[in-house]
Amino acid sequence: MSQPRLGEGAAVVRGGSDSFWDRITAYYKAGQQNAALREEVEIARIRLAEAEAVEQENIRLKGLLGLSVTETEPVAVARLVGSSSTSSRRFAYLGAGRDDGVEIGMSVRSARGVVGRVLEVSRSSSRILLLTDSESVLPVRRATDETVAFAEGRGDGLLRIRLINLGINPLEVGDIFLTSGAGGYYRPGVAVAILSEKTNDGGIARLIADPSATDFVSVEPLWQPEAVESADTPIELELAE
Fold first, then answer.
1. What phi, psi does 88 have (nearest 5°)?
2. How far is CA 154 from CA 86, 88, 210, in A?
3. pTM tops 0.85, yes or no
4. How far apart are CA 201 and CA 239, in angstroms?
5. What is the pLDDT of residues 109-158, one digit of tens each?
């Protein structure tokens, strides 16, 4: 019986080693592909919720006012050039300003959803009040129905969802919240947050559009300038008129 030669033994060892590393490489590649697929599924779910919300809003407006909602043309598209994370204040800075048509109060959104609104404007840059800032309050509604609430910034990167109508809390973890259009700043039907924890009066939610993971954003005009102007007018002046 012939004995295996030294070269043949080394080839067998190399073959087994190559097969082992091939399996390891395939495992990691599969993990990366699964992560990418999960990201695509989440974005698709968000877009579906927004589309359903727009359809519901169209039906509601057509029935009440005889109007339809059209896609909003952005005022400017620019890069978020920085953000702050000191104390409970959350700001970002935008590479577009007054010369680009940006005005105080305009909403700022990424491809995923709302980021915040314009707080201050200079000629070529703007400061953005992020949704997670402790002074930020945004009217929202659940994507699947007319459950309305306020999304309040907590200053820690999360939002507190506070129901307007107290009683039995109908919310569930995983619920998607969209802008309601109330207040005049943000147009309705734009993704805001996903509920991650349920509380007695609402819940805790995480942002759909994380500013730290956002590069370019669009600035949209005020949804209802008259409503914003009326809200900013002191009651004494309104009564005097």
1. -100, 5
2. 13, 7, 14
3. no
4. 35
5. 988 899 999 999 999 999 999 999 999 999 999 999 889 999 999 988 89
Query: In 3D, which of 143, 134, 140, 138 has the Cα closest to residue 117?
Result: 138
Q: What is the pLDDT of residues 37-71, one digit of tens each?
A: 778 888 888 888 878 777 766 665 554 444 334 46
- Which among 96, 95, 138 is positioned nearest to 116, based on CA atoms? 138
Residue with tokens 């590479």: 95
